[in-house]
Amino acid sequence: PEYKGEWVHPLIDNPDYFDDDEIYAFEDFGAVGIDIWQVKSGTIFDNILIGDSVEEADAAAEAIAEMQKVEKAKFDEAKEKAAEEAAAAAADDDDDEDEDDVVEDDHGLPSPDGGYYDDADDDGSR
């Protein structure tokens, strides 16, 4: 039969078609949409440049790299400060460690060994 084998689509003329060498050129894009599938969360895309000048792109890349160095230095400084504060808070928590170990039962009464009372036992034993 005629339907067996590779299918070859028929070529149909499109009277509305014309070749446009500057189809990409707009005065203002307004926004850029990027559809990226990724596994790692927290990825941020920033500093997107659309242009047709290699020199302009190189200059922008250098400016962005300098800005990123400053941002990274500030981020590292803030991270170090947060780590110091966490270490200080952990040192303060060690002082009252035994106070936090008391567990309360359903009636709000702590068991002597820091555990919980079994509701099935009326005498408070475990």
- Termini distance? 85 Å
What percentage of amino acids are in beta strands?
under 5%
Largest sheet: none
- Assign a percent range to the helix content: 25-40%
Low-confidence residue ranges: none
Radius of gyration equals: 34 Å
Roughly what is the average pLDDT, rounded to an integer? 79
Q: Can you count the beta strands?
A: 0
Count of helices?
1
Shape, please? elongated
Structural class: mainly alpha
Order of helix and strand elements from N to C terminus: H
Describe the structure.
This protein has 126 residues and is mainly alpha-helical. Helix content is 33%, strand content 0%. The protein contains one helix and no strands. The chain is elongated and about 90 Å long. The mean pLDDT is 79.
List the helices and strands and how they pair.
Elements lengths: L53 H42 L31
What descriptors fit this protein?
126 residues; 1 helix; 0% strand; mainly alpha; elongated
Task: Describe this structure in a few short sentences.
With about 130 residues, this protein is mainly alpha-helical. It contains 1 helix and no strands.
